[in-house]
Amino acid sequence: MLRLIKSRPGHLTGLTRRWITSSSSKTTVMSFGDGSHGALGLPSSIMGLDSDAYEPTPIPGLPDNISSITAGHYHSLAVTSDGHLWTWGRNHESQLGRHPLSPREKWNEPKRVEGLNQVRVQAAFASGVISAAVGDDGSLWVWGKSKRGQLGIGEGNTDSAFPTRVEALVGEEIVKVSLGWGHALALTKHGKLFGWGYYADGRLGKIGKSFESSPLDSVDSKSLPSEEISSSMLETAEKLVLEGMEKEKDMPVVWEPTLIEELRDIEVVDVSCGLDHSLVLCVDGTLLSAGSNVYGQLGRVKQDMGMHPVDIKLHPLSIASGMGHSFAVCQHHSSEITADTPSVVSWGWNHNSQLGRNGLENVPLVVEALASEIPISVSGGRAHSMAVTAGKELWTWGCGRNGRLGLGSSVDEPEPMIVEYLEGCEVVQAVAGFDHSLVLIAE
C-alpha cells in the first residue's frame, strides 16, 4: 500500500509526492454501504443484486496485490502494485472504461481497464461521471462523459468511452488529480496546479476568465420549508444541484487544463475538490479555498470569489473534501495535546453529523473524539466521513443510511466510531464514495 511520508514538522515540501510501500504483499478490498449502483463490487450470490452491505465485505474477483483504492460518486477503482487498473459500479457515463454496450448486470463485477494496457498506472481518481489515471511517467488519462468539460481533452469534447490522454498536460509530470461535480484540479511533481472544467463561483481560481456566480449559490437551503429540511436534507441538497444545473445556460467552462494564476509562483503540495468547492494546500502551510460556500465549506469569513486563505489556526498536513464538507489533518500545538500530534479538523455541511463534532459549522474545529488517536488519512462522502489511524484502525461517522458507516446499522453517528468488524485487521486505506465505502486491508 502506498502511504504518505510526513516531512519534518513545519515543512511540507514533497508531502503529496513521497511514498513508501507497505511491507505486506497481499491485500484485500472490502466494501459497504449503498449497493444500488454496483459500486460495492459484490455479486448477487453474496448480497443479492444491488443490495446494501452494512458491514465490510470482501470483494471477490480482484487480484491480491491491490496497492490503492478510489471511490467515485457511484463507482469504484483499484490499482495493483504492477500498475493495472480495475473498475466496477455505475457505467451510464462510460466511467468504467468498458465498451458502451457492456451488459448492465455485469457492471458490478470488477474488471481490468484494457484501454490502459500500455500504461503502468500509479494512481486513479474519480468523480460522478469521470475516471482518471496517472501513469508512472506522469501522464494523465481520462474517460467518461461530462458536458462541463471535466475530461479536459479539448473544446466540445464531452465524452470518451475509453482512456484518452490529456494532451494539454504532455510535458508535465502529474502526481494527483481531484475531481468535483464538473471541475478538476491537477497537481504536478514540482507543485504547479492546473484547473479545467466548470469554473463558476471561482472554484478554479483565476484562469484568465471573469468570475461568474452559479445558480446554485442563489438558492439558500435555510430558506426552504422546515418540514422539507427535517424530512431529508440529503434529497434536498441533491434537488438543489439538479435544479441549478437545469437553470445553467451557456455554462462557464474551460475545456483544457490551464495554470491557476494566483498560484503561478507558489508551490502546491495537496489539492481536494468537493462537489462545488476546492481546497489547495501550499508548501508554507497556507490552506486556500474557493467555490461555493452554501454550507460554509470554504471555512473563511472572506466571501470573495477565487482562492483565499481558510480561517484555520493549526498547521495543515493534508486535506480532503466531502460533498459539502471539508477536512484537514493538522499539526496541533497545545498544552493539552502532545506537540506535533496530528488532529482532524472539519467544517462545512453537518446535517447528518458528518463533521464529527459540535460547534460552528463554518469554522474549522478539531474533531475531539479522535484526539487520542493519530490520524493518517481522512475521507468524506455525500454525508459520511472516515479516518484511518496510525493504529491501522478505521473510524467512521455521519450518515449511516445503507450501512455506509460499516457499523452494522443505518443509524447516524454524531462522533467517530471504530469499525469493530475490522478488529485485528491492518487497515491501510479507506475512501468514501457518495453513499458507499471502500477499505484496503493488508494480509
UniProtKB/TrEMBL annotation:
Q: Does the keyword Transmembrane helix apply?
A: no
Repeat among keywords: yes
Report keywords, A-Z: Repeat
PROSITE patterns, per database record: RCC1_2, RCC1_3
Spans of repeat RCC: 27-82, 83-137, 138-190, 191-284, 285-332, 342-391, 392-443
Q: Which domain of life is it from?
A: Eukaryota
Which Gene3D superfamilies does this chain map to? Regulator of chromosome condensation 1/beta-lactamase-inhibitor protein II
Matches recorded under InterPro entries: RCC1-like_dom (IPR058923), RCC1/BLIP-II (IPR009091), Reg_chr_condens (IPR000408), Ub_ligase/GEF_domain (IPR051210)
Under Pfam families, the record lists: WD40_RLD
Residue ranges of domain RCC1-like in the record: 29-439
The record's listing under PANTHER family reads: REGULATOR OF CHROMOSOME CONDENSATION, REGULATOR OF CHROMOSOME CONDENSATION (CELL CYCLE REGULATORY PROTEIN)-RELATED
What name appears for this protein in its UniProt entry?
RCC1-like domain-containing protein
